[in-house]
Design a protein that fits this description.
353 residues, mainly alpha, two-stranded antiparallel ribbon, 16 helices, 62% helix
Length: 353
Protein backbone atom coordinates (compact mmCIF):
# COMPACT_ATOMS: atom_id res chain seq x y z
CA UNK A 1 0.00 0.00 0.00
CA UNK A 2 1.35 3.45 -0.98
CA UNK A 3 0.81 6.66 0.98
CA UNK A 4 1.62 10.18 -0.31
CA UNK A 5 3.14 12.39 2.41
CA UNK A 6 3.53 16.16 2.03
CA UNK A 7 6.22 17.87 4.13
CA UNK A 8 5.75 21.63 4.53
CA UNK A 9 7.52 22.27 7.84
CA UNK A 10 11.07 20.92 7.57
CA UNK A 11 13.63 22.82 5.43
CA UNK A 12 14.63 21.19 2.11
CA UNK A 13 17.13 21.93 -0.60
CA UNK A 14 16.28 23.60 -3.87
CA UNK A 15 14.55 21.49 -6.52
CA UNK A 16 13.56 18.94 -3.87
CA UNK A 17 9.94 17.76 -4.12
CA UNK A 18 7.70 18.47 -1.17
CA UNK A 19 5.91 15.14 -1.48
CA UNK A 20 7.16 11.61 -1.12
CA UNK A 21 5.60 8.17 -1.59
CA UNK A 22 5.92 5.84 1.36
CA UNK A 23 5.34 2.11 0.89
CA UNK A 24 3.75 0.35 3.84
CA UNK A 25 3.31 -3.41 4.26
CA UNK A 26 -0.12 -4.93 3.79
CA UNK A 27 -2.23 -6.49 6.52
CA UNK A 28 -0.33 -9.77 6.33
CA UNK A 29 3.35 -10.59 6.36
CA UNK A 30 4.98 -9.89 3.03
CA UNK A 31 2.44 -7.20 2.14
CA UNK A 32 -0.14 -9.59 0.64
CA UNK A 33 -3.74 -9.75 1.94
CA UNK A 34 -4.79 -12.89 3.76
CA UNK A 35 -7.01 -15.28 1.84
CA UNK A 36 -10.17 -16.35 3.66
CA UNK A 37 -10.01 -19.95 4.78
CA UNK A 38 -12.66 -22.62 4.30
CA UNK A 39 -13.87 -22.29 7.89
CA UNK A 40 -14.15 -18.50 7.53
CA UNK A 41 -16.33 -18.90 4.46
CA UNK A 42 -18.34 -21.60 6.16
CA UNK A 43 -18.96 -19.38 9.18
CA UNK A 44 -20.09 -16.50 6.99
CA UNK A 45 -22.36 -18.88 5.07
CA UNK A 46 -24.16 -19.88 8.27
CA UNK A 47 -24.80 -16.22 9.11
CA UNK A 48 -28.27 -16.83 7.63
CA UNK A 49 -29.33 -18.32 10.97
CA UNK A 50 -28.59 -15.16 12.96
CA UNK A 51 -31.79 -13.23 12.26
CA UNK A 52 -34.80 -13.34 14.56
CA UNK A 53 -36.96 -15.52 12.33
CA UNK A 54 -34.35 -18.23 12.02
CA UNK A 55 -33.54 -18.11 15.72
CA UNK A 56 -37.22 -18.48 16.67
CA UNK A 57 -37.62 -21.39 14.27
CA UNK A 58 -34.48 -23.09 15.55
CA UNK A 59 -35.69 -22.74 19.15
CA UNK A 60 -39.02 -24.42 18.36
CA UNK A 61 -37.35 -27.13 16.29
CA UNK A 62 -34.75 -27.70 19.01
CA UNK A 63 -37.54 -28.19 21.54
CA UNK A 64 -39.04 -31.01 19.45
CA UNK A 65 -35.62 -32.55 18.93
CA UNK A 66 -35.03 -32.63 22.69
CA UNK A 67 -38.47 -34.17 23.24
CA UNK A 68 -37.63 -36.87 20.69
CA UNK A 69 -34.28 -37.62 22.33
CA UNK A 70 -35.60 -37.78 25.90
CA UNK A 71 -39.02 -39.26 25.10
CA UNK A 72 -38.54 -42.19 27.47
CA UNK A 73 -37.79 -39.80 30.33
CA UNK A 74 -40.45 -37.18 29.59
CA UNK A 75 -43.38 -39.51 28.93
CA UNK A 76 -45.33 -40.18 32.15
CA UNK A 77 -46.56 -43.58 30.91
CA UNK A 78 -45.80 -46.11 28.25
CA UNK A 79 -47.66 -45.27 25.03
CA UNK A 80 -49.22 -48.76 25.02
CA UNK A 81 -50.18 -48.88 28.70
CA UNK A 82 -53.93 -49.51 29.05
CA UNK A 83 -55.99 -48.19 31.97
CA UNK A 84 -59.46 -49.74 31.83
CA UNK A 85 -60.74 -47.38 34.53
CA UNK A 86 -59.85 -44.25 32.53
CA UNK A 87 -61.40 -44.45 29.08
CA UNK A 88 -62.23 -41.36 27.04
CA UNK A 89 -61.28 -39.13 29.96
CA UNK A 90 -60.65 -35.43 29.30
CA UNK A 91 -57.43 -33.79 30.49
CA UNK A 92 -56.87 -34.19 34.22
CA UNK A 93 -54.06 -34.20 36.78
CA UNK A 94 -53.37 -37.87 36.13
CA UNK A 95 -53.53 -37.56 32.32
CA UNK A 96 -52.63 -34.08 31.15
CA UNK A 97 -53.95 -34.61 27.61
CA UNK A 98 -56.65 -37.12 28.43
CA UNK A 99 -56.94 -40.77 27.39
CA UNK A 100 -57.99 -42.80 24.37
CA UNK A 101 -60.89 -45.23 23.96
CA UNK A 102 -58.98 -47.98 25.79
CA UNK A 103 -57.36 -45.78 28.43
CA UNK A 104 -54.00 -45.00 26.82
CA UNK A 105 -52.35 -41.74 27.78
CA UNK A 106 -52.45 -39.27 24.87
CA UNK A 107 -49.53 -37.18 26.14
CA UNK A 108 -47.26 -40.23 26.21
CA UNK A 109 -48.28 -41.14 22.67
CA UNK A 110 -47.61 -37.61 21.43
CA UNK A 111 -44.18 -37.54 23.09
CA UNK A 112 -43.17 -40.94 21.70
CA UNK A 113 -44.63 -40.01 18.32
CA UNK A 114 -42.26 -37.04 18.14
CA UNK A 115 -39.31 -39.40 17.81
CA UNK A 116 -40.64 -41.04 14.65
CA UNK A 117 -41.44 -37.69 13.05
CA UNK A 118 -38.02 -36.20 13.79
CA UNK A 119 -36.11 -39.33 12.73
CA UNK A 120 -37.95 -39.70 9.42
CA UNK A 121 -37.85 -35.97 8.67
CA UNK A 122 -34.14 -35.51 9.27
CA UNK A 123 -33.04 -38.84 7.82
CA UNK A 124 -35.01 -38.27 4.62
CA UNK A 125 -33.65 -34.72 4.39
CA UNK A 126 -30.05 -35.90 4.85
CA UNK A 127 -30.42 -38.51 2.11
CA UNK A 128 -32.13 -36.10 -0.27
CA UNK A 129 -29.66 -33.27 0.41
CA UNK A 130 -26.58 -35.45 -0.15
CA UNK A 131 -27.95 -36.73 -3.46
CA UNK A 132 -28.99 -33.20 -4.48
CA UNK A 133 -25.52 -31.83 -3.75
CA UNK A 134 -23.72 -34.57 -5.66
CA UNK A 135 -26.00 -34.57 -8.69
CA UNK A 136 -26.73 -30.83 -8.77
CA UNK A 137 -23.19 -29.55 -8.29
CA UNK A 138 -21.61 -32.12 -10.61
CA UNK A 139 -24.16 -31.53 -13.37
CA UNK A 140 -23.68 -27.78 -13.02
CA UNK A 141 -19.89 -27.83 -13.04
CA UNK A 142 -19.29 -30.48 -15.68
CA UNK A 143 -20.00 -29.94 -19.36
CA UNK A 144 -21.07 -32.06 -22.28
CA UNK A 145 -22.87 -35.39 -22.11
CA UNK A 146 -22.15 -35.90 -18.42
CA UNK A 147 -23.96 -32.71 -17.47
CA UNK A 148 -26.87 -33.48 -19.77
CA UNK A 149 -27.12 -37.04 -18.45
CA UNK A 150 -27.33 -35.92 -14.82
CA UNK A 151 -29.83 -33.24 -15.78
CA UNK A 152 -31.99 -35.86 -17.53
CA UNK A 153 -31.83 -38.07 -14.41
CA UNK A 154 -33.04 -35.12 -12.33
CA UNK A 155 -35.94 -34.52 -14.70
CA UNK A 156 -36.98 -38.16 -14.41
CA UNK A 157 -37.13 -37.99 -10.61
CA UNK A 158 -39.06 -34.73 -10.79
CA UNK A 159 -42.04 -36.48 -12.39
CA UNK A 160 -42.01 -39.68 -10.31
CA UNK A 161 -45.15 -39.75 -8.10
CA UNK A 162 -44.08 -40.06 -4.50
CA UNK A 163 -47.08 -41.43 -2.61
CA UNK A 164 -47.89 -44.27 -5.07
CA UNK A 165 -44.26 -45.36 -4.96
CA UNK A 166 -44.27 -45.40 -1.15
CA UNK A 167 -47.52 -47.40 -1.17
CA UNK A 168 -45.94 -49.98 -3.47
CA UNK A 169 -42.79 -50.25 -1.37
CA UNK A 170 -44.72 -50.42 1.93
CA UNK A 171 -46.99 -53.17 0.57
CA UNK A 172 -43.94 -55.42 0.17
CA UNK A 173 -43.38 -55.47 3.94
CA UNK A 174 -45.70 -56.55 6.69
CA UNK A 175 -44.30 -53.92 9.05
CA UNK A 176 -42.11 -51.47 7.09
CA UNK A 177 -39.55 -49.77 9.35
CA UNK A 178 -39.31 -46.02 9.57
CA UNK A 179 -35.81 -46.12 8.09
CA UNK A 180 -37.24 -47.63 4.91
CA UNK A 181 -39.94 -44.95 4.74
CA UNK A 182 -37.31 -42.25 5.28
CA UNK A 183 -35.13 -43.75 2.55
CA UNK A 184 -37.98 -43.76 0.05
CA UNK A 185 -38.95 -40.19 0.96
CA UNK A 186 -35.33 -39.10 0.55
CA UNK A 187 -34.93 -40.85 -2.82
CA UNK A 188 -37.97 -39.10 -4.28
CA UNK A 189 -37.32 -35.71 -2.69
CA UNK A 190 -33.89 -34.67 -3.97
CA UNK A 191 -34.71 -33.57 -7.52
CA UNK A 192 -35.92 -30.02 -6.79
CA UNK A 193 -32.85 -29.23 -4.70
CA UNK A 194 -30.56 -30.66 -7.38
CA UNK A 195 -32.21 -28.50 -10.03
CA UNK A 196 -31.67 -25.32 -8.00
CA UNK A 197 -28.07 -26.22 -7.13
CA UNK A 198 -27.31 -27.00 -10.77
CA UNK A 199 -28.47 -23.57 -11.89
CA UNK A 200 -26.45 -21.79 -9.19
CA UNK A 201 -23.35 -23.91 -9.87
CA UNK A 202 -23.49 -23.04 -13.57
CA UNK A 203 -23.39 -19.39 -12.52
CA UNK A 204 -20.49 -19.94 -10.11
CA UNK A 205 -18.27 -21.89 -12.50
CA UNK A 206 -17.63 -18.75 -14.56
CA UNK A 207 -16.67 -16.60 -11.57
CA UNK A 208 -13.13 -15.29 -11.24
CA UNK A 209 -12.21 -17.26 -8.10
CA UNK A 210 -13.24 -20.55 -9.70
CA UNK A 211 -11.37 -19.75 -12.90
CA UNK A 212 -8.31 -18.82 -10.84
CA UNK A 213 -8.47 -22.12 -8.97
CA UNK A 214 -8.68 -24.03 -12.26
CA UNK A 215 -5.74 -22.04 -13.68
CA UNK A 216 -3.67 -22.92 -10.61
CA UNK A 217 -4.26 -26.60 -11.27
CA UNK A 218 -6.49 -27.22 -8.26
CA UNK A 219 -8.17 -30.66 -8.32
CA UNK A 220 -11.87 -30.91 -8.93
CA UNK A 221 -12.44 -32.15 -5.37
CA UNK A 222 -10.96 -29.01 -3.86
CA UNK A 223 -12.67 -26.62 -6.27
CA UNK A 224 -16.09 -28.01 -5.36
CA UNK A 225 -15.59 -28.41 -1.60
CA UNK A 226 -13.56 -25.24 -0.90
CA UNK A 227 -14.55 -22.76 -3.59
CA UNK A 228 -18.17 -23.65 -4.41
CA UNK A 229 -19.89 -25.33 -1.48
CA UNK A 230 -19.49 -22.42 0.98
CA UNK A 231 -21.17 -20.15 -1.59
CA UNK A 232 -23.99 -22.68 -2.03
CA UNK A 233 -24.59 -23.16 1.69
CA UNK A 234 -27.67 -20.94 1.81
CA UNK A 235 -29.39 -22.86 -0.99
CA UNK A 236 -28.35 -26.18 0.56
CA UNK A 237 -29.82 -25.14 3.92
CA UNK A 238 -33.06 -24.01 2.26
CA UNK A 239 -33.28 -27.30 0.37
CA UNK A 240 -32.66 -29.27 3.57
CA UNK A 241 -35.36 -27.39 5.48
CA UNK A 242 -37.84 -27.83 2.64
CA UNK A 243 -37.13 -31.55 2.45
CA UNK A 244 -37.65 -31.95 6.21
CA UNK A 245 -41.03 -30.24 5.89
CA UNK A 246 -42.06 -32.41 2.95
CA UNK A 247 -40.90 -35.60 4.68
CA UNK A 248 -42.83 -34.82 7.89
CA UNK A 249 -45.98 -33.99 5.95
CA UNK A 250 -45.54 -37.16 3.87
CA UNK A 251 -45.05 -39.35 6.94
CA UNK A 252 -48.06 -37.99 8.82
CA UNK A 253 -50.22 -38.22 5.68
CA UNK A 254 -49.24 -41.82 4.99
CA UNK A 255 -49.81 -42.72 8.64
CA UNK A 256 -53.19 -41.03 8.72
CA UNK A 257 -54.49 -42.85 5.63
CA UNK A 258 -53.20 -46.17 6.99
CA UNK A 259 -50.26 -46.90 4.69
CA UNK A 260 -47.86 -47.08 7.62
CA UNK A 261 -48.88 -49.57 10.35
CA UNK A 262 -50.53 -47.99 13.37
CA UNK A 263 -48.14 -49.86 15.66
CA UNK A 264 -45.45 -47.34 14.65
CA UNK A 265 -46.20 -44.33 16.81
CA UNK A 266 -46.11 -40.88 15.24
CA UNK A 267 -48.53 -37.97 15.09
CA UNK A 268 -50.21 -39.35 11.97
CA UNK A 269 -51.03 -42.70 13.58
CA UNK A 270 -52.57 -40.88 16.57
CA UNK A 271 -54.84 -38.98 14.19
CA UNK A 272 -55.64 -42.26 12.43
CA UNK A 273 -56.76 -43.90 15.68
CA UNK A 274 -58.75 -40.82 16.68
CA UNK A 275 -60.55 -40.78 13.33
CA UNK A 276 -61.24 -44.52 13.40
CA UNK A 277 -62.76 -44.36 16.89
CA UNK A 278 -64.99 -41.38 16.13
CA UNK A 279 -63.16 -38.80 18.21
CA UNK A 280 -63.93 -36.10 15.62
CA UNK A 281 -67.67 -36.75 15.74
CA UNK A 282 -67.91 -37.17 19.51
CA UNK A 283 -65.99 -33.97 20.29
CA UNK A 284 -63.08 -35.67 22.04
CA UNK A 285 -60.74 -32.84 21.10
CA UNK A 286 -57.93 -33.87 23.49
CA UNK A 287 -57.21 -36.88 21.26
CA UNK A 288 -56.70 -35.14 17.90
CA UNK A 289 -55.92 -31.49 18.72
CA UNK A 290 -52.49 -32.05 20.40
CA UNK A 291 -50.92 -33.99 17.48
CA UNK A 292 -52.46 -31.51 15.05
CA UNK A 293 -50.95 -28.60 16.97
CA UNK A 294 -47.57 -30.35 17.02
CA UNK A 295 -47.65 -30.75 13.24
CA UNK A 296 -48.59 -27.09 12.88
CA UNK A 297 -45.88 -25.97 15.33
CA UNK A 298 -43.07 -27.84 13.63
CA UNK A 299 -44.34 -26.57 10.28
CA UNK A 300 -44.21 -23.00 11.60
CA UNK A 301 -40.68 -23.58 12.93
CA UNK A 302 -39.41 -24.86 9.59
CA UNK A 303 -41.17 -22.03 7.77
CA UNK A 304 -39.54 -19.43 10.03
CA UNK A 305 -36.14 -20.95 9.35
CA UNK A 306 -36.84 -20.88 5.63
CA UNK A 307 -38.04 -17.27 5.79
CA UNK A 308 -34.86 -16.33 7.59
CA UNK A 309 -32.76 -18.01 4.91
CA UNK A 310 -34.73 -16.21 2.18
CA UNK A 311 -34.19 -12.89 3.92
CA UNK A 312 -30.46 -13.56 4.08
CA UNK A 313 -30.13 -14.72 0.47
CA UNK A 314 -32.39 -12.11 -1.16
CA UNK A 315 -30.72 -8.67 -1.02
CA UNK A 316 -34.05 -6.86 -1.33
CA UNK A 317 -35.59 -8.73 1.59
CA UNK A 318 -32.42 -8.25 3.63
CA UNK A 319 -32.30 -4.49 3.02
CA UNK A 320 -36.04 -4.17 3.70
CA UNK A 321 -35.67 -6.04 6.99
CA UNK A 322 -32.72 -3.90 8.05
CA UNK A 323 -34.64 -0.73 7.16
CA UNK A 324 -37.68 -1.89 9.14
CA UNK A 325 -35.57 -2.67 12.20
CA UNK A 326 -33.88 0.72 11.97
CA UNK A 327 -37.26 2.49 11.83
CA UNK A 328 -38.51 0.54 14.84
CA UNK A 329 -35.47 1.59 16.84
CA UNK A 330 -36.25 5.21 16.03
CA UNK A 331 -39.84 4.79 17.20
CA UNK A 332 -41.40 5.02 13.74
CA UNK A 333 -44.22 2.87 12.41
CA UNK A 334 -43.06 0.60 9.60
CA UNK A 335 -46.56 0.41 8.06
CA UNK A 336 -47.03 4.16 7.71
CA UNK A 337 -47.60 5.19 4.09
CA UNK A 338 -46.38 8.72 4.79
CA UNK A 339 -42.87 9.25 6.08
CA UNK A 340 -42.91 10.82 9.51
CA UNK A 341 -40.98 14.10 9.77
CA UNK A 342 -39.55 14.86 13.16
CA UNK A 343 -40.15 18.44 14.37
CA UNK A 344 -37.12 20.66 14.60
CA UNK A 345 -36.03 21.38 18.18
CA UNK A 346 -36.84 24.84 19.55
CA UNK A 347 -33.18 25.64 20.21
CA UNK A 348 -32.30 24.95 16.58
CA UNK A 349 -35.08 27.27 15.38
CA UNK A 350 -33.88 30.06 17.64
CA UNK A 351 -30.31 29.67 16.41
CA UNK A 352 -31.47 29.81 12.77
CA UNK A 353 -33.44 32.95 13.45
Amino acid sequence: METIVTDTTSPRAANTPATATVRRPGPAAGGTPTRPTFWTRLGSAFAMFRNRKSVAGLVILGFFVLVAIFADVLAPYSPTKVDNTARFQPPSAAHWLGTTHIGEDVLSQVIHGTRGVIVVGFLAAIIATVIAIVVGVMSGYLRGWRSEGLSALTNVFLVIPGIPLIIIVASMFEDPPLILIAGVLGLIGWAWGARVLRAQTMSLRSRDFVQAARANGEPLRRIITVEMLPNLMALIAASFVGTVTAAIIGLTTLSYIGIIPVTTYNWGTILNWASAQGAFRQGQWWWYVPPGLCIAAIGVALSLINFGIDEYVNPRLRSAGERARALKKKGMNVNDTVTAVRPEPATSRQENQ
